Amino acid sequence: MPLDIIVGIKWVPNTTAVNIDPKTGTLIREGIPSVVNPHDLTAVEMALKLKDKYGGSVTAISMAPPSALAGLEHVIGMGVDRGILASDRAFAGADTLATSYVLAKVIEKIGRFDLVIMGHETIDSSTAHIGAQVASWLNLPYVYYVVDAVLEDDGNTLEVTRILENAYEKYRIRLPAVISIAMHTFNPRRVRLSEKLRAKMEKPIEIWSIKDLEIDPNCAGLRGSPTVVSGIDFVPKVPRKNEVFQGSDPKEAARWLLSKLIEEGLLDL
Amino acid sequence: MASKKMLCSEWEPINPMEYKGIWVYVEVEGGHIHEASLQLLGEARRIADELDTYVGAVIIGYGIKELAREPIYYGADKVFVVDDPRLEKYYPNLYGDVVCKLAKKHKPEALLVGGTMRGRELAPYIANNLKTGITADLTSIEVDKETGDIILIRPPFGAWMLAHIKTRNRRPVMGSVRPNIFPTPERNEDRDGEVIEETIDEVLDPRMEYLEYTPIEKAEEIPIEKADIIVSGGKGLGSKEGFKLLEELAELLGGVIAGSRKAVDAGWIPHDRQVGQTGKTVKPNIYFAVGISGAAQHIFGIREAKRVVAINIDPDAPIFENADYGIVGDYKEIIPALIEVIKEMKMKKSGSAKN
Ligand SMILES: Cc1cc2nc3c(=O)[nH]c(=O)nc-3n(C[C@H](O)[C@H](O)[C@H](O)COP(=O)(O)OP(=O)(O)OC[C@H]3O[C@@H](n4cnc5c(N)ncnc54)[C@H](O)[C@@H]3O)c2cc1C
Ligand SMILES: Cc1cc2nc3c(=O)[nH]c(=O)nc-3n(C[C@H](O)[C@H](O)[C@H](O)COP(=O)(O)OP(=O)(O)OC[C@H]3O[C@@H](n4cnc5c(N)ncnc54)[C@H](O)[C@@H]3O)c2cc1C
Asked: Which domains does chain B possess?
């Protein structure tokens, strides 16, 4: 019983490369490379594992500017069959309601699918909204933080195990459905050069515009977003003492620190 | 109206003026109300007073009636209860659907959801069904003095800035809030309020079946949000081994270990020990930041620490600007030195106690 799977991947600035301007306190964005959201590679890995086991197909979808083609090529290099990039100026400035709407429309247009898999959350805005919202738009059952999924013999129910703060839960969920994968559940497989070459040769990546998707412009991008940033504030800085040990001997440094803390009554040694 | 033409064809038109009251979704787990929900009731009370409106609490499930008055003791004026055998098990789409039905009927101006793992799963579904906006992990709430708009505030990407987020023309204004962002209000049994029992005719078929719940056995560790002393490590530790040193120090001081997001991402420490905006807010007497650079999202989580100690090899690391006491150096030298000196001091003390 093959599974046709759709995975959502977001093209995000690589925050491990992000630096903060110490003078202005703002982000230095220039020259920051983008990557596929790392938690989405975990989702791709889950999709590929399911495909390895049950057969079927994996389609990666992304709403992003054209530069995200590189991200879709990356996951095709991992073994994803097909990529779809929803890209249009009209999609810019979207909050999660408008983003999830476009993704839901992409999924509708793909038509045939059994399972939608999302990452735990993104590393840039980390809302973890998109999975639930896509499920809502498509009126599908959904569950987050999945660590394991087994297709039952009937071929249309999935038994999923998910992790919460203090427990594992098991659900049986009827397909089609939406799941998100708990972060760090799997190590994503490596990109194979032969697969990446296939991406270049066969061009299994399509770009869909707002017209292709027949989306009402009032539902996408800034216009389809109820939330707006109405102002920016600085994080109030907590006043700190900023005393730094002057010297280089570790034991002296240790004595200095401990005596300060003991003096303040915070330590009793 | 021009504004009607602009509306997304998928959204039902609403009149925001009809929406009143600040609602809190009250999460029940294992027969108890989650602390995160109680904390939101306190904040909802503050906002409701400012807007001269009521605080509503929503409790749904099965066999939960005896909890119905609890939210009142923490600040609610009205508690909307759905006690229904069909809600015995939690399914996100089913619970979401029921909350939406109540929201459509009573039209609250705002709806807040505790950012537990289940809460973060449920809240965006509710928002989407209502075609309203939702702000994730907000850290404070304000009321616009001129317009009366509710403004949700969250730290944005990478910077020392806070984004003020408004919800244009859609209601309720929705937000999720991580545990311990707001304090738990004091329980007051003298507070008065009204319990409203709601019935739902038709519920959504969840298309899911709940099979099993297995608690995770965790070592008897103090959760980091309750610890007095925290020794926290970052990417600068270089390996999981580095945390062994921190553990030794923490143990000597009767504290616990924690970490930055990069340490969590590297798999050196579990996610429930992450400090910061997308982790936990901690309030220890002493917070040791070891090999942590001091990114805004990390510092956010230690704003309520009494004293911050920074140990970092880079004298220009931003952590020093956010610390009370700093030592510039390799943690592999500083931490063993600390351990040694503490042991010496402890020995001296037990020695002098004997004399
Ligand atoms: C600092 C900051 C804060 C923000 N806060 C909010 C907020 O509180 N509320 C709000 O409505 N919007 C917010 N936004 C806008 C939001 O980032 C965008 O709507 C974004 O497109 C999706 O949200 P996310 O990155 O949080 O995704 P998440 O919901 O965290 O993503 C979950 C999963 O959905 C999939 N996915 C997400 N985006 C895409 C995509 N574009 N293409 C394909 N798959 C995808 C991935 O599998 C991902 O792992 C914020 C933006 C920034 C920069
Ligand atoms: C939306 C969002 C939410 C986030 N939420 C969080 C959060 O909740 N918590 C969090 O922590 N981060 C969070 N981050 C990530 C944050 O921006 C930083 O990337 C992260 O905090 C950096 O971790 P770090 O300090 O361990 O690593 P780095 O920034 O890499 O710093 C390592 C430090 O170690 C020092 N070092 C190296 N070797 C040694 C040595 N031998 N001895 C001593 N010091 C040494 C270096 O000088 C450096 O300062 C978030 C980011 C985003 C975009």
From this structure: 15-197 (3.40.50.620), 224-354 (3.40.50.1220)
